[in-house]
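Late entry, evening session. Most of the bench is empty. Finally got around to the prediction I had been postponing all week. Sequence below, unchanged from the version circulated by S.P.
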Amino acid sequence: MTAPTLEVHQGGRLTACFDPVGDVARVGRANAADLRIEDARLAFEHLRVVAGDGHLLVTLADPTAACRLERVAGPSLELTPGAVAQATPGDALLLTGEAEDPIRLVVRESPASEPPRILEERPLALLAAGRGAGPDDATLLRTLCALQERLGAAPDSAAVLETLADAALELVPRATHATVILRDERPGEGPALYVPMMTRVRGADGRGAPPPGPVQVARSVYRRVVEGRAAILAADAPSGELSTESLLGSAIRSIVAVPLWQAGEILGVLQVDNRALPGMFRSVDVDALGVLAGAASLAVANARHIDRLRVAEARLGDENRYLRARERSRAPASDTLLGESAALVELRRQIARVAATRVTVYIQGETGTGKELVARAVHAGSPRRDRLFVAQNCAALPEALLESELFGHRRGSFTGATEDRRGLFDLADGGTLFLDEIGEMPLTLQAKLLRALQEGEIRPVGAARAHHVDVRVVTATHRDLEAAVRAGAFREDLYYRLAVFPLHVPPLRDRRGDIPLLARHFAEQASCELGRSVAGIAQSTLLALSAHDWPGNVRELDSEMKRLVLAAPDGGILTDDLLGPRLRAPVAATDARGPAAGTLRERVEKVERHLVLEALAEHGGNKTRTARALGLTREGLHKKLGKLGLT
């Protein structure tokens, strides 16, 4: 039984047929795919298909891709990344979901062929012992010496494989094609696969050359080599019992396949074909190629190891550069606390005043205003900047786990404590510990924190003695701690210990003049993270962003800019038609329901802000025409914009 074929059906009609030659066939819209389907709904590498006897093994190649296996017998199956599904004749692979123009790969049975009969089979043990040297020992010796020199000069695995294939053509004069097949192990994707990696053909000058087009390889032969751990000779293949479909389709007259091995482990197969010349390979050809494979196997294994190390080194280098860039972007206050509004300038002045001291800092501000950035700025401006900055959200863990996380624990102190563990106070020794949402800390744990602040000592859970730590504590909350103290939900003595130097982070609506600067910064950041380019932000978009109240503050603006970058065409301008419904146009301050609640001054300012923004948008941001339309001088408009926080 041979491997099934695939029929490509689009729009209810057959558009292509495909025979998955080789152990792995890649399906997708990439130019290098074995089965290329030009459709934007598919991933570049959508599926991997492994040909088996009477079935196909299918797995998702891209975690974002989708595929459903519709079985003839049994329920349908949604493929998941890493899982391998078996498809048999009659089954269909649906690649695009229930769309009007679905893409289906239908599995069809291939014509049956006679089971192969091997004319000669040479076990690996005999090859490793070096039995036989070939028709001309001197020729073999010269080839091996030249091979070793070229292998030593090969810069990568591709050059090693090319050298090996050319040496095989040189050693076996009747050969027209030489192919190197290597094992491809992918964790979580089933057993090892064998993939043709390099084919060389005999050129007009008798030397190896790249093939003019795709070369079909007889997979039944190299599978037999791997399974039987032996070299194989098949002579006069089209009329013999190795006349499988792949052999007949390739017009292979004779074939020799020998394993590449190291310490008894099969690394791959060297397969040599005769597709044009009269005559058959002989037993001595098997001997010669066996010696050649034995000499080259170590070089092939080493080259693959070097390639893996290069890939790993490049990946680690990229990760290291990314982490360093991220830390640089977080550390300096000038880079993170963006803005030139009066409120932010005052905040930076207070940070500079308190950073160099040992005073405990308490940061208060609404959710999303950037309290952790302020804490990092305090740390970056302090003498502790070269030590660790450690952050913990007190609302993220239950009381028992939070105590262990902050102070550490000893082995056996509670169920699951199988070893000693250092807490965050120990990790931050000499540096800064930032406790976010301090108002959510349970009262019992507040007492332990108070002792750590007063005495500089902590006692891990289950420990008999306390020990000293040198940690500067910075806390933050969006709650009103004074009200929590009055309600008995927060210790008064701890509150006064924490609030030695309070810092207030203004909400974004109180520094609207910073919104354009922040929007551009977040757009540039998002374009780098998402791999997209942005040509700029339209003036009307900036005006709409500036008019919004931003209840989620800077965090909400950051999320909105990411959404805008994704919604805009690559390389396009961020225009106001891409904004979400709440941001697309300023809400009229004087609609049928009347203005929002507030003092008379607040209501008047809101109406003025809306009218000014509306006029600016109407005149494309031109301040001279806007001032004329509003009956103001240009200088008067500038003063009005400053008063309304729209500069």
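Two things to note before I forget:
The longest strand covers residues 193-202.
Confidence is low (pLDDT under 50) at residues 112-116, 237-249, 330-335, 585-595.
Will write this up properly tomorrow.
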